[in-house]
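Hydrogenobyrinate a,c-diamide synthase structure dump, as promised
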Amino acid sequence: MSAPGLLVAAPRSSSGKTTVALALMRALTRRGLRIRAAKCGPDYIDPAFHRAATGRPSFNLDSFAMAPPLLDALASATATDADLVIAEGSMGLFDGVRAAESRTGANADIAARFGWPVVLVVDVSGAAQSAAAVALGCKLYDSRVTIAGVILNKVASARHRRLVEAGMERVGLPVLGVLMRDAQLVLPERHLGLVQAGETTDLEARLDRLADLAEAGIDLDAVTASAGGAVPVSTDSSIVPPGQRIAVARDAAFSFLYPHIEAGWRRAGAELVPFSPLADEPPHAGCDVCWLPGGYPELHAGRLASASRFMDGLRTFAQARPVHGECGGYMVLGQSLEDADGVTHAMAALLPVRTSYHRRKLHLGYRVARLCGDGVLGRRGARLVGHEFHYASEVSPVPDESAALAQVADAEDVALGLAGHRHGTVTGSFFHVIAADQA
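structure tokens r here:
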């Protein structure tokens, strides 16, 4: 049987969803419950924190990028052998793209599809009773979604708490808990979000501190009692691995590989062989494909440029076997990378790409791609759905269709032109693939 679930969401970004979700996950795990987590939308950092908090894998659930069979299969895998599913939203509860109902990428789509009640995190800094009006708007906005109650975040004082709770009582929304304003609760961040779980100092102590605060300030029994919904038992085999033995770069510079992609490759029988470019390790010679995920190569450009064993081994590997790079991996496959200080570092020169982090510009959004040629991502014309989030820019010419990876459009089917490169066995682009064959 599948476990009941709930969705931790908020009216807007930066309300404290991750703080509250991690606090609940860790506190309930400490009570002996088998907690499984999920992340709504295209986020490759938060699932690692979920895993640290619960001791179990966390998958992304994305109603825009994932077709219903894949979405149901990932939710089913999450809700199996668990006592409770806690999904964490992204942005605001109803924020998504303009698309068909239930396919907008909004958190609300996931709550509605699986019947998971919403625990609404409300940042009440700068407001008192007015916070209840915002919460009431969330309650009434979409009849598909049930708001089980609210958790108040960044409460300034006992008086502030009483005023906010009076407003919530007036609109009939239960207050499930309160977290006082505390700068120590804030997890460290960098330009693409939280500093990664593996790099966060004293992560276990931080998670236990959050769990202590949840025990003290949140009615955990009421939260668990509010869970509900049902996930259909489902399997999906649409994630096709790019090879049988896949050399995967994995360290502080290369870590943005969606957990559902990795799990899908393994489920299909592939073996993943990790190596660390920052430790100057080359891809394993016994592998048939090399995959360079995204990450933070712009923060380690000097070390990567001087990692001669890695660079030489990568070039040797690419002479006869496929190599693919996503976002940061794409930058490393290029000719050069300009860091934040304006210093240019030589990269692998396997693709005719020059990138700059010095000339920062935000690139953000879903990408719907049609492949321009055959490769490890699929056959020419195959449709992929992915996401792009980075500040680096290409400063080299855009390739023509004979050398581009794909024709891309945004979530509203606005053409964005050609993206990425392919040269011999080497391919790459700035977008991270989430799913394929969604048309």
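The chain has a mean pLDDT of 94.
lmk if u need the other ones
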